[in-house]
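Appendix C: a fully annotated inverse folding record. The material below is reproduced so that readers can follow the format used throughout the book. The structure is listed first as tokens, followed by the designed sequence.
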């Protein structure tokens, strides 16, 4: 592996081989998402506990202090919206020049396997890989499902993740699901968990993160489960505990309760 790629990956993935990425890029197709109306303010108390922050160039330029020391994963695709005809109508929008100008440690882009614009997104992602490999910048593929949440099965996500790796992704972001080990086992590059089933409690989040890690994921790329929570700092600290301190879900719940009560 080239030195530049390895150096950037080492900033993202910590010495224990694990990572907690915090995405705040949702506005690129959702607009001013709840709790993310002012993204810079939302993440201020969370940044110390994240290993990297994922966002678009617009939010990076306008909302983030250039003195930030955390590595940035730059969302470089778009062209779709929640009110458009098809969420899969997405492609690369940010140039390699802009990626370099903003000093991104990695880039991310969605692929829509099985979607109406599958070919467009896969071709666009492949071109992004070519551009970024020339300059030593890792690419992270996001296995998007659009509005078809029922697609989140091990068979489908395993297909998406393997295709992303075959096209050159250095990291794959995909959803947690039943039989998640099958997804990870079939993907020859590191996998981070994008999210899981709709849950009602913090403990259930800790449970799917813990199980995903046991199945071989290196960490998470979780946003709404953290910054939309009533106690976001307690959430990110507990999830960090699962990832980097090998806490069980019950131990993570204990840490969450302590932080929530101001005792940790």
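Designed amino acids, in order:
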């Amino acid at each position: 592996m080239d030195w530049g790629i390895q150096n950037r990956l080492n900033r993202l993935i910590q010495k224990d081989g694990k990572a907690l990425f915090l995405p705040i890029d949702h506005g690129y197709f959702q607009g001013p998402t709840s709790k993310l109306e002012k993204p810079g303010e939302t993440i201020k108390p969370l940044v110390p506990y994240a290993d990297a922050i994922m966002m678009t160039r617009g939010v990076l330029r306008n909302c983030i202090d250039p003195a930030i020391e955390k590595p940035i994963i730059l969302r470089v695709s778009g062209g779709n919206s929640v009110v458009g005809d098809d969420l899969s109508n997405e492609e690369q929008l940010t140039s390699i020049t802009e990626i370099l100008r903003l000093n991104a440690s990695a880039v991310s882009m969605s692929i829509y396997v099985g979607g109406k614009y599958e070919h467009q997104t896969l071709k666009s992602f492949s071109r992004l890989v070519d551009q970024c490999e020339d300059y030593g910048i890792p690419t992270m593929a996001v296995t998007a499902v659009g509005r078809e949440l029922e697609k989140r099965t091990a068979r489908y996500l395993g297909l998406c993740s393997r295709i992303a790796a075959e096209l050159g992704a250095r990291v794959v972001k995909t959803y947690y699901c039943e039989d998640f080990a099958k997804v990870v086992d079939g993907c020859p590059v590191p996998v981070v968990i994008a999210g899981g089933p709709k849950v009602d409690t913090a403990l259930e989040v800790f449970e799917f993160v813990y199980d995903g890690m046991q199945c071989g994921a290196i960490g998470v790329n979780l946003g709404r489960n953290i910054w939309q929570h009533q106690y976001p700092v307690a959430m990110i600290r507990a999830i960090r505990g699962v990832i980097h301190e090998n806490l069980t879900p019950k131990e993570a719940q204990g840490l969450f309760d302590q932080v929530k009560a101001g005792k940790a």
